[in-house]
Amino acid sequence: MEPILHEWGSLLLRWTHIIAGMAWIGSSFYFMHLDASLRQVPDIPAGKGGEAWEVHGGGFYQVKKYLVAPDFLPEHLTWHKWQSYATWITGFFLLIWIYYYQSSIYLIDPAVMELKPLVALLIGLGGLAAGWVAYDRLCRSKLGDTPAVVGAIVFAGVVLAAYLFQQVFSPRAAFIHTGALMATIMSANVFFVIIPNQHKVVAALKAGEVPDPYYGKTAKLRSGHNNYFTLPVVFLMISNHYPLTYSTPYAYVMVALALVAGTVIRYYYNERHAGRGDKAWCWLVAALCLAAGIVLSATTTPAGRAALGLPPLVSTALASSGPPVAVPEEVQNIVMGRCSMCHAAEPVYEGIVIAPRGVMLDTPEAIARNRHLILVQSALTHAMPPNNLTELSAEDRAMLKAWASGR
Predict the structure, then answer these.
(1) How far, in Å, CA of 36 to CA of 27, rounded?
(2) Which of 262-284 are b and which e, b meaning 16 or more Cβ less than 10 Å from the residue's Cβ?
(3) Per-domain boundaries in the chain
(4) pLDDT per residue over 290-336, tens digit each?
(5) Is residue 41 a contact partner of residue 48, using CB atoms and an 8 Å limit?
(6) N- to C-terminal Cα distance for the chain?
(7) SS3 of 164, please?
(8) pTM of the prediction?
């Protein structure tokens, strides 16, 4: 029963996380577009805000923005914060549910580094916390007044984090933790800076004081960082379904390419919405990054490495830490005969260039390591092989179920 409950828990957490993320990203994109669309109006002093007219759903909207605060505080004020909090909380529990609860499958790769589950958990959570602290101190330092310098340092820091995660975790987990680090910075910006600053502005208005423009300026800077982080974070989060992105030894370079591509695309739209013209060169840069990523992913496959003149990769299908699990010969024959043509260091099935999800099933050690996935995908359900292409029989599935469930 546990595997079934775990799969449903994963589904429900992921469902909620995606919905919350859609709401957060949607509101972020909307307000960035709104800021860029503001036009000067007589009732708001120059440089203090603006107005935008919009049409949607059969109606017209007149939206005004005050860069500091209006002269009065309305009774009803909508706070845009819960989308961020819900996205981070569900993502955090999803990280625990998949990568820490099943650390021997998804997080720890003995070919990279032998880690105890608790040590791996502390490294992962410590990395997220340390990344936020370093970023926050950078923004609060004197360098924080120079956005270009801050951007360059943050870019280098994220790429460095990706490289360091790659030295301790499985390739898939390293990619996810890099995305989680960026997402943590984004949500922490809302929780620790943007919303508190807005509360200070509201408190000043209630006290009959003039709010300090610093609070709005700082919140806007952090909001801008979040805006440019969004597309790279989404890329890193969905890439865990595509091993070609994270299985290369140069995955940290893939992260750098995603950062550049996502940033220039957001820059293009921010400039266009602000009426400063179409920066067509942004799409050229993004396309070059995409092309470089495709070439880089070739280093993952044997054929690609041979074409690039690189030495073959050593298979990482090693046994997991902890006591070994015996794999009967009958089980080995079933898995290697029905699954390993795709799930191998060098897949032989037509159209498959890299093992789906990076799962190897071409050695007894690898089969033992992935027994939980075998149980869920091929015994409790008939998800694998796809459309039962290799004709895995009911008897074979029953044998896999008995072995993988420890009966």
Answers:
(1) 14
(2) bbbbbebbbeeeeeeeebeebee
(3) 83-303, 329-404
(4) 999 999 988 877 767 777 777 776 544 433 444 457 899 999 999 99
(5) no
(6) 13
(7) helix
(8) 0.82
